[in-house]
Amino acid sequence: MALMITDECINCDVCEPECPNGAISQGDEIYEIDPNKCTECVGHFDEPQCQQVCPVDCIPMNPDVVETKEQLMEKFLRLTSEKA
């Protein structure tokens, strides 16, 4: 499942540069994660990097976007082939 940023976000800007897929961007009020680009860092890292650096722990799983590890890997392969 993709990740999401909750309204506890303090706009500290540490998560955005950590995302290898460019899924995190500044929204109207807080940072947002594009579920079409979020792979939970599958294919890049063992754990989601944004969650690792978030000082307020406001990046949970998005219950509206449920995906298996296999689906996340397929998304990773699609995204990386589009960049090539």
Description of the structure:
The chain has 84 residues and is an alpha+beta fold. The chain has two helices and two strands. Strands 1-2 form a two-stranded antiparallel ribbon. A hairpin with a 4-residue loop joins strand 1 and strand 2 (31-33). The longest helix is centred in the last third of the chain and has 15 residues, at 69-83.
Strand count: 2
End-to-end separation? 25 Å
What is the beta-strand fraction?
A: 5-15%
> Any idea what the shape is?
globular
Strand order of the largest sheet: 1-2
| Element order: H for helix, E for strand | EEHH
Residue stretches low in confidence (pLDDT < 50, at least 5 long) are none
Largest sheet: 2 strands, antiparallel
Which features does this protein show?
84 residues; alpha+beta; two-stranded antiparallel sheet
How would you briefly describe this protein structure?
The chain has 84 residues and is α+β, with helices and mostly antiparallel strands. Helix content is 24%, strand content 7%.
